[in-house]
Amino acid sequence: MAVATQAPTTQTLTLPEELILMLLNEENGYFHQVPGWRLNCAVIGAVLAELSLMSRIDTDLESLFVVDDSETGDPCLDPFLEEIAKEPRQRNARYWIERFALRAESVIDKTLDRLVELEVLEYHDGEFWTLARSAWRPDPYGRPEEATAGQFTKTRIGNLILTDSIPGPRDVIIICLVNTCDVFRFMFKLDEEAEDRIEFICKMDLIGRSIAEAVVHNATAPMLRHSRLTKRIPSVKLRDLLRSPHVRDGNLPALFAGLAGKYGPVYRLPMQVGEPMIYLAGPEVNHWANRHGRMYLRARDYFADFERVYGASGVLPALDGADHFRLRKALAPAYSRRRLQGQVDDIYRYAREFMSGWKVGDSFQARSMCRGMINGQISPLSVSVDSQDIFDDLMAFKERALIVHIIKLLPGFALKTPAMKRTAKAIDTLLARVQSVHTPAQRAGCPRDLADDLFSLNESDPALVPETNLRFALSAALIASVYLGDAFSLVLYAMASQPEYYTRIRSEADALFADGDPDGDAFTPAAVDVTHRFITECLRMYPIVPASMRNVMNSCVVEGCELPVGARLVLVQTAPHYMEDVFPDPFKFDIDRYLPPRYEHRGPGYAPYGLGTHRCLGFRWMELQLMVNVLMIAHYFTLEVAPKNYKHRFSPFPSMKPSKKLHFRVAKQLREVLV
């Protein structure tokens, strides 16, 4: 039987879309590094050029004027056309590029969304994009060719630059705009002849030349423009800081949200210990960091000393740019929800083994119980060994290293005490254990784990994953038990302190386990609706990692404030969790926030897993493992908060976790736990 094939589609891209595709750098999943103001000018130039090619405006070296003010139907073009049409005086292209440049980011965002919708680009978690394979008609005579739109655009432009082919007006404009961004040298191997060819093409079309010259004029002195437009970064008054109740209860997101409400999204704190830092807090800041942070912010400065403690260099949290993208893509399968779905039976088994000794009346310290339960699952699933006997030492060493080298609340010698030297030995113990069981014969027939992926990467690409990094990478996988365990303890606290939700979650659990253990695909949105929304709200109110630290590597303007090169930043991505305009009545626990039409989490204000390129790689794994454990406890037990008069507070450093005073008491056992 013949199989029908879909005919190639003819798709015309706009100049802003082709410009974005030309700038895409698939080596790092983002775009060639074009200074922000220069990029903004080029994008607006593409908008004006597209309007010109659509016969809505006309331009020359002296003036730009509207010839047809009817809408184009393109949301990236029509607002600008309307504004130009309303201007009573005739202006030139340079004027309009300067006037519109600060709005270019909205054009970039809409263009990226449009290219994903057209299946030209594929979006990846962490704000990465790669070219998607699509059927296009790159040939002007309609002859189909299987390719990607981005490959076609670059190939077409490359042929024009490197041969004597005659470019059309659209090609001339694209070449002019990309040339103003100064990135052709990264795309093609240019000799002097090719550079002369580019200059020649840029003079061929009056429209392209006039707009390109306007872009160049506006892009030449952005620092002067910054000095006129930026404002002073305010400093928080000490009394405002100390008056906040969240200094005492440890709720850092609520603390920084309150300060942002009074001082704006960019501010400094008084009496900072060590080098001064700038704090960023707000949904607009989150949006900027998601889309543009990688061009201006760098992570490795904060992690250099920390990773050296483990004898490592270039671990995933410390990498930026292309190497970060390569390693993240290589490790993505190991942290995927799909891999955990295939091993969900093991989660059930390990969870039951941990709970099998619980009796009514037993009381457990919440933090240690939840960390132990989660590590009892993550350790065998990720590295195929048991590590419960050394887990406390691994955790203590890493927390001390974070406090010394990341948060900088303790001096360096605090890592060299006899106690810390003893705990550090657990790292080598773990590495020896993992290596001893990861031989070809022992791994035959076993499901692939994270250690398999790391050892394989070390063999195939030892520069990307050297042996020196394995001590950190393998121990870090288990330290994830700390973060997930602390999140688990806070979800159980929320469930145990709100019986009405406990009952609804138990109903979902009983339905899932009614006919035996469900497989990994059973956790559908419908089957776990209440549980999923409950956990989503817990992660909003109780985020484990509330902030990220970065250094400014390229000066930039954020929310009207200029961030100078070398500035140290604290990006409090979870501050919007407690902002009234993002989450109304933010201190109220309300799982209906995530139902239509509210969908309060669908935006940059919800960020429990971090932002941008350094967003938690395993957040989908985390969500599923957290959900399975919550449902299993609800299915078997009723837990109570102890003591009954417990008043919730956080221990905020080095990450947010419940107070040591929080305990859980087994109030009821609903069914026998069969191991």
Radius of gyration from the alpha-carbon trace, in angstroms: 28 Å
How would a crystallographer describe the biggest sheet? 5 strands, mixed
The coarse overall form would be: globular
Q: What is the tally of beta strands?
A: 20
Given helix and strand content, the structural type is: alpha+beta
Multimerization state: single chain
Q: What top-tier CATH class of the largest domain fits best?
A: Mainly Alpha
Number of helices: 28
What is the fold-level CATH name, i.e. the topology of the largest domain? Cytochrome p450
How would you sum up this structure, described in words?
With 675 residues, this protein is an alpha+beta fold. It folds into two domains: 15-226, yeast vps74-n-term truncation variant domain like (yeast vps74-n-term truncation variant fold, Orthogonal Bundle), CATH 1.10.3630.10; 252-669, Orthogonal Bundle (Cytochrome p450), CATH 1.10.630.10. 50% of the residues lie in helices and 10% in strands. The longest helix has 27 residues, at 470-496. The model is unreliable at 1-10, 137-146 and 223-229 (pLDDT under 50).
